[in-house]
Design goal:
The chain is mostly beta strands. Helices cover about 0% and strands about 30% of the residues. It contains 1 helix and 14 strands, in the order βαβββββββββββββ. It has one helix at about 35-40, and strands spanning about 25-30, 40-45, 55, 60, 65-70, 75, 80-85, 100, 110-115, 120-125, 125-130, 135, 155, 180-185. It has a 6-stranded mixed beta sheet with strand order 8-7-2-1-12-13. The longest helix has 4 residues, at about 35-40. The radius of gyration is 17 Å and the shape is globular.
Length: about 190
């Protein structure tokens, strides 16, 4: 009797199985002007791990708190996911892949990972970003080293579908852009 089962399904990787850089933050809308902060903020990241990942248990950390994704949210290799605040009325009408319960600040450090492992972090506390524009990681810079470098980021210039004036590319590939983020050395960064 020969086993002809060709089932190659594998279980998705858990957050605890990932290494730094397996998930990479690609877009942060922290300073919307169309609606209140809670209704227009969003966060996007890409799966660079080469395997399907279940985001159940992923922690999103920022100065405004920590939020943990609960429940199965699968992300395929090379795929991006979009998160919005849980209490959001979502003024753009975005379809989110997950929700979080924290506020992103104009100058912040946003990290994703677990209690024991930071997968990615973006420190934009000294970056000057125009209000109403998301921070967008340039295409081709989607690894965790590139997204630590201010030179790999720009302020979005495309109008968000459904927005009056806010700029970004939620749930879409970030367009090519020129770096226009300025480092503000005049303010001291303290925690």
């Amino acid at each position: 009797d020969t086993d002809t089962d060709t089932d190659t399904d594998t279980e998705p990787a858990s957050i605890e199985e990932l290494s730094p850089g397996d998930l990479v933050i690609t877009e942060i809308m922290a300073t919307p002007v169309d609606c209140g902060l809670r209704d227009a903020q969003y966060l996007e990241f890409i799966n660079q791990s080469g395997q399907t990942v279940d985001l159940d248990g992923l922690m999103i950390m920022a100065e405004g708190g920590t939020s943990t994704i609960s429940g199965t949210v699968l992300i395929e290799p090379g795929e991006s996911v979009l998160g919005i605040p849980a209490t959001s009325e979502q003024c753009y009408g975005l379809e989110a892949d997950f929700e979080y319960s924290l506020v992103l600040y104009e100058q912040d450090v946003v990290s994703i990972g677990s209690a024991s492992n930071t997968l990615d972090s973006v420190d934009y506390r000294r970056w000057t970003v125009p209000e109403g524009a998301s921070l967008a990681l340039m295409p081709g810079s989607t690894d965790s080293d590139d997204n630590d470098d201010v030179e790999s980021w720009c302020a979005s210039t495309a109008l968000i579908d459904g927005a009056r004036s806010d700029l970004g590319s939620p749930a879409e590939e970030n367009p090519d852009c020129e770096n226009d983020i300025v480092i503000d050395d005049s303010c001291a960064v303290t925690w």
